Amino acid sequence: MKMKKKTGYILYIVIVLGLCLVPFAGMLFRPTTQTTENKKMTEWPVFFQESGINIHFFEEAGNYFSDHFAFRQELVEADAQIRSNVFEVSAVDSVIVGKNDWIYYEATLDDYQHKNGVSERMLFNIAHNLSLMQQYTETLGKTFLFTIAPNKNSLYDENMPERYRYQIAENSDAERLKPWLEREQVNYLDLFDLFEQQEEVLYYARDSHWNQKGAVLVYQAMMEACGLDYEDYEALGYDVVKDYFGDLNLMLYPLGAKPEEDARYRKEFNWSYVQGADVTDQYIQTTCAEGKQNLLMYRDSFGNSMIPYMAQTFSQAAFSQIVPYPMTDLITAAPDVVILEKVERHLQTLGKVPPLMSAPIRILQQEMSVSEGNTTLALTKEGSYWKFSGIADAQLETDSRIYLYVNDGTNAGTYEAFCVEASENGVVSDYGYQMYLSEIMLNGSAFDVSVIAETKDGFLIIYEGTVGQ
Which of 133, 134, 316, 465 is surrounded by the fewest CB atoms within 10 Å? Predict the structure, then answer.
């Protein structure tokens, strides 16, 4: 009896060890070489480096095995199916398993719950920076339009897990931003209101983006907001196809992802690529013989599905994901229309990373007083621009603008800065500022600078000094 029991233990241990060795041994004939996860697969580490032995070799080798062990995708799929179907939880941290086969992006949870909202100063920064972009665009005789792509659960939350369905604050950052956009007179297209007016669900159930019918809705709304003619795709009709595999779908179920239905409009497109080869490319240029006028669209992944419709409408179009936005594109792409689309969950970027453009000249005729404090100023060279940046230390209002008077010894001028979040010595402040001046506008490399803040009582000089060498 004892012998049989001992034999059973040994057999159990052998089976468990054998199962554990299968993923490792299987790498000899079937290693995992591709992944549906949004990351680069680890490469096999080098033991001997130019500087000597790689002390992280075994750690890196472990990471390599974690990415490449045999049957990885199958095991990930099995784990995902068990967790979602049995326990109704996600096997992937970045994905939320919802009801009725819906899945959501975890990174949108703070926006959905109105949690960790930005400061009112940050909302001003975003709106103010957009207004400066718009002013620059309009001085060149071009149309500017800004819009926010709503997170899926901001529009369709009925399938969110009950444990997540609550809001901490009354309004989301996007809702709080809207009055600031109106105050700064930014030409804004409200897609939240547009989608809420539609009876049909226009986002994918297993993807984070709007579907093709949603893309057409946004395309037409953008054209109307810019006062342009557009193709009525709904009048052309469409076929329903079930061949779309969403981003969240593939992340959660690498092998068992289910295709979704989508609309395929009955339109023969004849636009073509001039630069780039796919809508996911960082920078794309297109041309269309039937199109009219030129377009520059700063977009993220929500703009990808709109590219065919936009490219068909405009004679020349440029679609860019490059950040910071290089406003020299307004010269090189020669657009008639500039559209900036930003997804809701990345709104803060507009108050952290301003566009790359020379600061606008301002004339301040009021008298100024001096306020002592710890305002900082740094000067760096970035390409063909001088970059002035720092943090304002004064009793400023939420909507205080910041200006810099710059004297290079020959010429002097006052310029308006972008308002940004900045960090110095571990301290983060929404009262940072940043300004670019083209090197052709300044002589030398040392400048006398005054940092000026606008308050309800007038203008305050909060820094005076010389920077550069």
Answer: 465
Distance CA 139, CA 352 (A): 24
* Cα-Cα-Cα-Cα dihedral sign, residues 97, 99, 101, 105: negative
Q: Which domains does the chain have, with CATH numbers?
A: 117-351 (no CATH), 361-468 (2.60.40.10)
Under the banding of pLDDT at 50, 70 and 90, the label for residue 90 is: very low
Torsion of CA 105, 108, 109, 115, to 10 degrees: 170
d(CA 106, CA 415): 41
Cα dist from 432 to 127, 136, 377, 390, 465, whole Å: 15, 21, 10, 6, 18
What amino acid occupies position 70? A
Q: How far is CA 220 from CA 126, 179, 227, in A?
A: 26, 24, 10
Confidence label for 251 from pLDDT (cuts 50, 70 and 90): confident
Closest to 392 in 3D by CA, of 430, 361, 355: 430
pLDDT digits (tens, 9 = 90+) for 323-345: 999 999 999 999 999 999 999 99
List, in sequence order, the alpha helices (H) in 207-306: 212-225, 233-236, 247-252
Q: Which tokens go with 113?
A: 């719950």
Q: Which backbone phi and psi does 302 adopt, to 5 degrees?
A: -65, -25
Q: In sequence order, what are the residues at sequence separation of 6 or more whose Cβ sits closer than 8 angstroms to the Cβ of residue 56?
A: 45
Do residues 438 and 358 touch, judged by C-beta distance below 8 A?
Answer: yes
pTM of the model: 0.83
